[in-house]
Amino acid sequence: MIGRGLASGAGQVPVVARICIVLIASLCAICAGDARAEDGHALWLRYAPLDEATAIAVNARLGPPELFGNSSPMTQAAQSELSRGFDAMLGQSGRGVILARAGQLPGGDSGLAEPLAGLPSGGYRIAQRHDGRVAVVANDDIGLLYGSFALLRHVASGANLDAIDVTSAPALPLRMLDHWDNPDGFVERGYAGRSIFNWWLLPDHLDPRLIDYARANASIGINAVVVNNVNASALMLTPRYIEKLARLADAWRPLGIRVWLSARFSAPRDLGGLSTADPLDPQVRRWWKDKADEIYRAIPDFGGFLVKANSEGQPGPQDYGRTHADGANMLAQALGGRGTVIWRAFVYASGSETDRVKLAYEEFKPLDGKFASNVILQVKNGPLDFQPREPFHPLFGAMPHTRLMLEAQITKEYLGFATHLAFLAPLWAEALGADTGHGEAGRALTVAQTLAQGGMAGVANTGSDRNWTGGHFDQANWYAFGRLAWNPDLSADEIAREWAAQTFSRDPAFTVPVAETMVGSRQAVVDYMTPLGLAHQMGTGHHYGPAPWVSDLSRPEWNPTYYNRADKSGIGFDRTVTGSDALAQYAPSVAVHWADAATMDEDYLLWFHHLQWDYQTQSGRTLWRELVARYDRGVAAVDAMAAQWADLASYVDARRHRDVADFLAIQKREAHWWRDASIAYFGAVCGCDLPPGTRTPAHSLDWYEAQRFPDAPGNP
Ligand code: BDP
User: Fold this and answer.
1) Can 81 be counted among the known catalytic residues?
2) Measured from the CB, is residue 414 less than 6 Å from ligand 1?
3) Shortest CA distance to 456 belongs to which of 121, 174, 259?
4) For 261-311, what is each residue's pLDDT tens digit?
5) CATH architecture, domain 174-499
6) CATH topology of domain 528-573+610-705
7) pTM of this prediction?
8) Is residue 493 within 6 Å of ligand 1 at its C-beta?
């Protein structure tokens, strides 16, 4: 009401008086540290006012907000978001949009619903009615919610509504965030402060941030949240925590988000007092069934369990001589038709001198077809571990009788934490668009297509930092994850542009160059950290900074030297038939592209091949010189990003501009450090001189090797 009064009365107040009111209001806002000041908290939902011409054009397509049919908590959430967004963007309240369920459109508009026939849940159409006004139409209420957010996104990105006609539906059923948050508030691999979940105060107090978090998720189509770490505490399954979780589930339901739990496989022992957690033991099965019943009594739409089993010390069915399928199916039976088990494929055995990247395939491929219908296998995008670049995981396409989910990491454990600007949409798009080579009759079968019965999970990058994600540009990764899980065909550039327009400025003089930089930023990280297909060269435990020399860790596959295999004669991991033959896990039509070092995409060169230092790469340079050139290219790209950002100061509010500039300065320093330390080490190993004209590392190799960071964040 206050907003409406000010807006409608404004016309009667003399101009000078209006200017004074605005000035006084701004001063008060500054003095009071106004929460509306730009600190990044509003994410891409900040709904900045439109310029006058666009506001008039948009306004012409709106009318009094209206809902055809009965209201529900979900349609109320949609309507409240529409008012919030349009009030802020148009500077006045009262105008809005018609929301209509397909069957409830008035006669003259019934054709609007035609394209919705057969669309999956959540699909919507935004189009003009017979009178020119805009309507959001959907088969279900969640579609109305998503359509409302899509309409706001459309307008907030700077487009007008004159010819709008958009029909869209989610490509993948599950679009999930996985939080690696512990009950005590620590976030494993978190770089944005403590957990957003204050379990201690739940269920009595629900932080309003958790509603904003759910709005942000709903705005990009995320519909599932695993609230706790895969390295799970059994505490989360106790009655006390189920009550807390129920409060969260109630709060998020109107925004279309279901809660899920990471389940500790040994819970029947840890909590139930049983002597075993053997999945074939009747008492164990009973315990899980009772636990599931207890959860569903409190949370009727509970999503299900995510399980990390027999991996990195976690308990699992193999502790009892059972298979992963035995474990997953036991939990699936406990949930029954009510929910789903998501079983992680991220496993690797200790001690063996085989190739770690082969292990998940070896373990799970034989189990194809053995999982219950409510089990989904969750596979990381690549076969190693969320590296800056990896080939896609060979399990995609190789498990035709198993529902699959792709796991991506939004938090940047291996890409410079929250401080490096690395837009991950290109990384995910690369994986999603890869042809697995398992299509029928020579047709392509992309990784994204193999997820049609599963979905995509992203390890969340949120925390208690005011801007949620530590770095402002890290918000773009949360955003891009949701957008790609909704539509894996979206281009990274498109996502970057719409995000930048909503988050910073709609001016194409800003969005175009910024999107271009964002799209190139991931390759920059690859170049200054792990060029030419190198992987896992990060510092021990915390994974901060370069450590290609580390070779003394107890498990062979924890050592960077295991992956770079650099010695006097050459560098790289031979995964061809003369080496580990991991290549054979891919379909022949795919493997052939990586088999020949001379013709392959050199971004994967040292992932698949061990080559002499004087091997001639496709540029004509020797391998050593090419490596140095790639490190230099990465460093130069970061220098250019920092310079570009300085030039764009006039488009961004001072505080966020400074925040980003500070982080870019850190990234610049660390990119140089990565390059210098890596060149110092590899140069020493091969006994190679620096190519002429190349900058000498700032310090000695000893200096780089002596760096220690026991205080690096996110390390359990
Ligand atoms: C690794 C992380 C570790 C996770 C593990 C996983 O370093 O903290 O627990 O992945 O995905 O990348 O289970």
Assistant:
1) no
2) no
3) 174
4) 999 999 999 999 999 999 999 999 999 999 999 999 999 999 999 999 999
5) Alpha-Beta Barrel (3.20)
6) Alpha-d-glucuronidase, C-terminal Domain (3.90.1330)
7) 0.95
8) no
